[in-house]
């Protein structure tokens, strides 16, 4: 019976943590961090010194968020480690959910995650430019490395679009947080 209770507790801890990792209290700060810091990451083999500094900031963020949540729900560090290493946490679905936590312990995974976010942000900017202008600037279609004055101006516009897109996203996230807080307070 004790083994079943322990297994049930591990299941509860894994489910509780998975729920937290899917929720806004985790997702919003982690996503904001990634979006703000990903632009320096590229797919080069060699890592830059700035990557290490950003990685350390990420580790601190993950630790702060997890410690706060674990304390809030009464899960000890030992129970967390036990659940984290359980077979339930090793499933493919759990691994996908836990990726942002695992990245705090594995620099290569962190770098891969940040490079991917950088690519996503660039693709989003290109899509927005195409939607707003109907076409892409020549510098994004011809493979030219030399920027003309017009192309430099287009890059300024691209940066402005990215900035405005981030502002719109931040406002939307704040609106969602406000809605959630007001819903939870009822």
UniProtKB/TrEMBL annotation:
Q: Does the keyword Hydrolase apply?
A: no
Q: Where is the BART domain?
A: 10-122
Q: Which Pfam families match?
A: ARL2_Bind_BART
> Which parts of the chain are coiled coil?
148-175
User: Where in the cell?
Assistant: Cell projection, Cilium; Cytoplasm
Q: Which GO terms describe its cellular component?
A: axoneme; ciliary base; ciliary transition zone
* Sorted UniProt keywords: Cell projection, Cilium, Coiled coil, Cytoplasm
In terms of superkingdom, the source organism counts as Eukaryota
> What's the family?
Belongs to the CFAP36 family.
What protein am I looking at? Cilia- and flagella-associated protein 36
